[in-house]
Amino acid sequence: ESTVALGDKDEHPEKQAQTGGASGAAGGGGDDKAIVSYWGVEPAKVTKEDGTEWRWHCFRPWETYQADLSIDLKKHHAPVTFLDKVAYWTVKSLRYPTDVFFQRRYGCRAMMLETVAAVPGMVGGMLLHFQSLRRFEHSGGWIKTLLEEAENERMHLMTFMEVSKPRWYERALVVAVQGIFFNAYFLAYLASPKLAHRVVGYLEEEAIHSYTEFLKELDKGTIENVPAPAIAIDYWRMPPDSTLRDVVMVVRADEAHHRDVNHFASDIHYQGHELKSSPAPLGYH
Amino acid sequence: ESTVALGDKDEHPEKQAQTGGASGAAGGGGDDKAIVSYWGVEPAKVTKEDGTEWRWHCFRPWETYQADLSIDLKKHHAPVTFLDKVAYWTVKSLRYPTDVFFQRRYGCRAMMLETVAAVPGMVGGMLLHFQSLRRFEHSGGWIKTLLEEAENERMHLMTFMEVSKPRWYERALVVAVQGIFFNAYFLAYLASPKLAHRVVGYLEEEAIHSYTEFLKELDKGTIENVPAPAIAIDYWRMPPDSTLRDVVMVVRADEAHHRDVNHFASDIHYQGHELKSSPAPLGYH
Ligand SMILES: [Fe+2]
Ligand SMILES: [Fe+2]
Ligand SMILES: [Fe+2]
Ligand SMILES: [Fe+2]
User: Fold this and answer.
1) Would B250 disulfide with which of A272, B67, B184, B204, CB 3.0-4.6 Å?
2) Residues 256 to 285 of B: which have CB under 8 A from any A CB?
3) Under an 8 A CB cutoff, do A281 and B41 touch?
């Protein structure tokens, strides 16, 4: 029999007692620890290089990296084909309302835009995952590359959250924008991954521009160059005395890497291939 | 200006020539290498511990592991609450048509079921990702844990694919089942993550049962104990002379770990918490 009701009640009476019986977890009572011990899924203790406890659950020491700041920030894919132009002008037309809404509040703008930037990688990665399952085909590493991008954008958000707090109407806006953008990108990716990746490539070009403006405001002093949040220092392995300016620098480098990956993905489709035919740039930072 | 048309044409004339101009990638011509070099996203060369080239793009050496075969295969969550019973009987009622369809062809059954098993982790991980973005909240590591589960299931599929080839009507069935199950699980997770994780917990209990039957057939000799596919040997760090039986053993251990994680996730919700309040069991194999 696959289902042995209360099977291990006899084997581990003490553990059962802690959770109030194998089925008792449902009834509340018992702290998290007790459940962890019942299911045996105690999270591993992780320490930093200096031996102190690792304080983040959303990322682990082996996922941290030093951003490659030497990346060319000016690289641009000139729109030539019809689809390229659609992608280019879609992104350009989205910039106008964004500029009007945020003006020069770049900290706030960064935070809000990262909630959007983390959508395409997750949608693309998910669709490739399901495609891989349906077709019984390998992914060439692209599922993970796109999911990594989504996670990286989420880490950008977790960082900017520490510097600027969203107001209630901004939170409402995020919910609305995410609902629209998720569906739009989902359909776009199904219809034309070539177009979808090109759009992201251009979005990333805009992101680079926006972070460059952010840096200018920091240098002018109109935005205060506060100390870097602890999460950023751990994630990008930055010196402890780093500032917001250093954070914006590494985030901008990340966006340039996303730009490359997405324009590259679009190019692969343009050449009539599927992504899996070209090994994915996993861990490209 | 953020967009410098053909900005680096002058800087890297040779590279441009290879791809036929910054925009020329769209026009075809040029091999993958040329594009890689244009966007600078050359995939890193990865080698095995013995110095030979790593041959898999869909997973990397540092994602491989040795399965913990000592896990308790009999652990079972006795359904007590109404929702638990809904979850339990949903899974039990799905087993009947599965048994009728596959009979004792466990290799084929394993392959088909893995295409379904890889759905919940991806859906759950995606929904938590979007929730984290909307709420400006950390995930506690659960996004990654669920995405890891989805990837692990996909690796099960990539392994069984090597042993048994899907027929055309099985491919058609996978497309239909994925369409239904994706939507059903998506809605279930939105409505009640407690129920959704419980369903997966019971599905994994059934998977353990099914792999145990598979092992019996292998031992009886009704299914031939062929050598383990190369991908399995690399993914689970198995000895080179491993067989299909060894593969089924480690896959079954994986399912037992998924069972624990999902029942645990459901228990957290039952206790009135959200997943993020309890650190996720990342890398629980
Ligand atoms: Fe970003
Ligand atoms: Fe980005
Ligand atoms: Fe599986
Ligand atoms: Fe599983």
Assistant:
1) B67
2) 257, 260-261, 263-264, 267-268, 270-273, 276-284
3) yes
